[in-house]
Design goal:
heterodimer; A: about 70 residues; mainly beta; Ubiquitin-like (UB roll); B: about 270 residues; alpha/beta; five-stranded parallel beta sheet; three-stranded parallel beta sheet; 10 helices; 10 strands
Chain lengths: ~70, ~270
């Protein structure tokens, strides 16, 4: 079986595979336009304009971050 | 009162002149941190009542259990969003966080925060300067949260920071301005705006920062964790404006002995 992608440190067998960055963002209930959200795949930030086009490779380490309240 | 005097008075009473950072005009000299508010409606009300033009946010991993409406709330409030690098302990982490924030929020501006100690949350001066240099080189508009050290603040300005943000006292401590002499020195020497950041507990301390020559005040906890955050937001607006007015009004010198305001001449002889 293909290695699952890891999102924010957790292996995610539950996600569709393959999945695009846009698909991943949607799977987390985040708005499609993604304001306040950023994604890095294997350490590389994926610009919002490429979310729909970029498929996350098997076994990739993904960081999915968003703006939260903070001083 | 001549018409010129009347016009000057009207100008003063209209409140502070706008703050300009990196060529951008901010109507308010109060920058509000969004941390610590329990409810979005309270944050929205604090934004409105404080009159703030810019608020800070942090960047964290998406928490599926917390689908907030933070960005929507801030967009509706019409405020500029300044992401910070809270939680970073190295220049490398801070640069990475700033890059994620730039992508997430489509802004080159960043409040650079590099903490050196998790008990005091004091900045790590060496990492801070390193991070500032790297971010300036990458095209960021950098507003560094710094210790109240005039030399460090000068080094940050020399590194190309758009403002310097010395602390009053540790984050969330509410201890006010521990070293007003240093804050006044920093304000006096700086060629970029000086924002007093952290430690403010109440409105008189925000006023004091402005009287010491700061260009703006950044605070979060003092409002968000007050018993009545919205009332304190109004107080901070008034405090910043009062301090700005007083700072520019030329206060009287401090004297040891009294100086009568009423002339001693012409006293009636009451035997």
């Amino acid at each position: 079986m293909a290695p699952a992608i890891t999102v924010n440190g957790t292996a995610r067998e539950d996600l569709a595979s393959p999945i695009t960055v846009a698909g991943l963002v949607a799977a987390h209930g985040l708005p499609a336009e993604g304001r306040g959200v950023a994604v890095a795949v294997d350490g590389e930030i994926v610009p919002r304009g490429q979310w729909a086009a970029v498929t996350i490779p098997e076994g990739a380490e993904v960081e999915l971050v968003q703006a939260i309240q903070g001083g | 009162m001549s018409s010129t005097d009347a016009s000057a008075a009207a100008h003063a009473l209209a409140g502070p002149t706008p703050l300009v950072i990196a060529g951008e005009t901010l109507a308010s000299r109060l920058i509000l941190g969004t941390g610590g508010f329990d409810r979005m409606d309270e944050l929205a009300a604090a934004c409105a009542v404080s009159g703030t033009s810019m608020v800070t946010v942090a960047m964290r991993r998406v928490d599926p259990s917390q689908q907030g409406s933070l960005i929507d709330t801030l967009d509706r409030a019409g405020v500029r969003i300044l992401p910070n690098t809270a939680g970073c302990f190295t220049a490398r982490e801070a640069v990475r966080t700033a890059e994620l924030a730039r992508e997430a929020l489509e802004t080159n501006w960043v409040k650079l925060e590099v903490i050196g100690d998790d008990r005091t949350l004091l900045p790590d001066a060496a990492e801070l300067l390193d991070g500032a240099e790297q971010l300036v080189a990458r095209g960021f508009t950098v507003l560094p949260y710094a210790t109240d050290d005039p030399v460090l603040c000068r080094r940050l300005e020399d590194a190309g920071c758009a403002a310097v943000m010395p602390l009053g006292s540790p984050i969330g401590s509410g201890r006010g301005i521990a070293n007003p002499i240093n804050i006044a020195l920093i304000a006096e020497q700086a060629g970029v705006p000086v924002v007093l950041d952290a430690g403010i507990g109440t409105a008189s301390e925000a006023a004091q920062a402005m009287e010491l020559g700061c260009d703006a005040v950044l605070l979060a906890t003092a409002v968000s964790r007050a018993a009545d955050p919205v009332r304190m937001a109004a107080a901070m607006k008034a405090g910043v404006e009062a301090g700005w007015l007083a700072g520019g009004a030329g206060r009287i010198p401090i004297r040891t002995w009294a100086r009568a305001s009423t002339t001693p001449e012409g006293m009636a002889d009451l035997g």
